[in-house]
Design a protein that fits this description.
One of its GO terms (molecular function) is flavin adenine dinucleotide binding. The structure is a single chain. The protein is of the alpha/beta class. The protein has three domains: 9-221, Aldolase class I (TIM Barrel), CATH 3.20.20.70; 223-307, no CATH class; 312-468, 2-Layer Sandwich (Double Stranded RNA Binding Domain), CATH 3.30.160. It is 41% helix and 17% strand.
Length: 469
């Protein structure tokens, strides 16, 4: 399930994502730094879903493929998308004019991942050029190739060139997947086989026909569109789909009815709850949300007795598998601030952080030195700041110290911050500057001090490291 408004998943976005197991939804989520879910999948589709990405860089493509390969059935590179958001970055159909880059990207992927690698292209201006490119692609070791039977400047109103797809299939030994038949060829399940035969392909890929009615793949025949919409919305709600993605997909199924009163209501909807209201599914939505909340509580109760992992000594470093979740801490409070305050009270040197950056996915891992002992989380973070916070958490938990999480409101630093905020509010209301408070605050760790750490990051790739300023 792509949650970014149905645009293809672009490698540069996915490379920044973190893989998160979502126990509530029973899914695996790939989450961007801004907390958006870019890709969500589940064990039921692990052996079926093919992860398609837009890319123009072999190394970045490999990093993304390695990030998702254990959760998908295959990796596909989209070399046929003619949309500007894809081509302006050298991706999609822009790659068709650079066969060498195509070869490099696919060869890198085939050698670097354990799952089958495929690609999708559009046909070139001549049959000879098309066959030549496909033969070159075949030599990279891809498992199959999808051919959209239109040139990159052609659109749905232009007829699909089945003869080009057939010629490709006759000239290569790998499976050829026919694409582009939704507009003219595929209206029913039986039409899928007719399109396959007309193009001489081994199988068929559908996009628009599947968006118009996802049940077109039912051998018994497609469901009525309204029934398909209802079934789709149920999946969207159960798996907490992005509202705008849900709305887009339903609009595709409504087609000409998108300007009807129902369609206008759908356009105005801003949440999945409001979408359910449009289609008379409010009761279903409430029950689905109640089920999710119940599952959350069950998971919290089952994990409450084993909230934190136990520290493990790895060489001279004490490690734990923890991550920093900003939402679990009050505003203006972080584990680093707690650790800094504790160090000062104990009259010890300020904690020292060293951070490594992993090349393949740009993730970070920090080690903090406190009282001549090193602490580190075994989990990599999406930013240097988060990695340092995770290291501080390991230290605090190992020492049995509070870290400022919500629920630890009785801890000293939280109470100080609350008193400071109340004092600032009073001062602002009265127009008086409280110099006493300002003096007292100067002896406590500020956000700026808390953020200060070593000005070096070690960039790592495998076992090698290079220190850069």
């Amino acid at each position: 399930m792509c949650l970014d408004l149905l645009k293809e998943l672009i490698d540069i976005k996915m490379a920044q994502c973190e893989r998160v197991v979502n126990d509530v939804l029973d899914t695996v989520d790939f989450i961007a730094p801004d907390e958006r879910v870019m890709f969500r999948t589940c064990s039921k589709e692990k052996d079926r879903v093919v992860f398609q990405m837009g890319t123009a860089d072999p190394d970045r493509a490999l990093a993304v493929a390695q990030l998702v390969e254990n959760d998908v059935a295959a990796i596909d590179v989209n070399m046929g998308c003619p949309k500007e958001y894809s081509t302006k970055g050298g991706m999609g159909s822009a790659l068709l004019s650079d066969p060498e880059k195509i070869e490099t990207i696919l060869t890198t992927l085939v050698r670097g991942v354990s799952k089958p690698v495929t690609c999708k292209i559009r046909i070139l201006p001549t049959l000879e050029e098309t066959v030549s490119l496909v033969k070159r692609i075949e030599k990279t070791g891809v498992a199959a190739i999808a051919v959209h039977g239109r040139m990159k400047d052609e659109r749905q109103r232009h007829p699909v060139h089945c003869d080009y797809i057939q010629a490709v299939a006759e000239n290569v030994s790998i499976p050829v997947i026919a694409n582009g038949g939704s507009q003219d060829h595929v209206k029913t399940y039986q039409d899928i086989e007719k399109f396959r035969e007309a193009s001489g392909a081994s199988s068929v890929m559908l996009a628009r026909a599947a968006m118009w009615n996802p049940s077109i793949f039912r051998s018994q025949g497609a469901l009525p569109v309204d029934e398909a919409i209802e079934e789709y919305i149920k999946y969207a709600v159960r798996y907490d789909n992005n509202t705008f993605n849900t709305k887009y997909c339903v609009c595709q199924m409504l087609k000409d009815r998108v300007e009807s009163p129902m369609g206008k209501q759908l356009h105005a909807a801003q949440t999945n709850a409001e979408i359910c209201e449009v289609f008379g599914m409010t009761d279903f939505y409430k029950k689905a949300q109640a089920d999710l909340e119940s599952r959350k509580k069950d998971l919290q109760q089952s994990s409450s007795s084993d909230l934190f992992d136990q520290p493990v000594l790895d060489g001279d470093v004490i490690t734990m598998a923890v991550k920093f979740e900003r939402r679990e801490y009050p505003p203006q409070i972080t584990p680093k601030m707690y650790l800094l305050e504790w160090s000062r009270k104990e009259k010890m040197e300020q904690p020292v952080y060293e951070t490594e950056q992993r090349v393949q996915d740009r993730a970070f891992q920090s080690t903090v030195l406190v009282a001549n002992k090193k602490y580190r989380s075994t989990l990599w973070e999406k930013s240097k700041k988060f990695a340092e916070q995770a290291a501080a958490i390991v230290c605090l938990r190992t020492l049995g110290l509070p870290e400022g999480r919500i629920g630890e409101e009785n801890s000293g630093l939280v109470n100080k911050r609350k008193r400071e905020q109340r004092s600032r509010d009073v001062s602002q209301d009265s127009g008086i500057t409280d110099s006493t408070n300002r003096k007292r605050r100067s002896t406590e760790p500020s956000q700026k001090e808390e953020q200060e750490s070593n000005d070096k990051i070690t960039v790592v790739n495998g076992s090698c490291g290079q220190t850069v300023p």
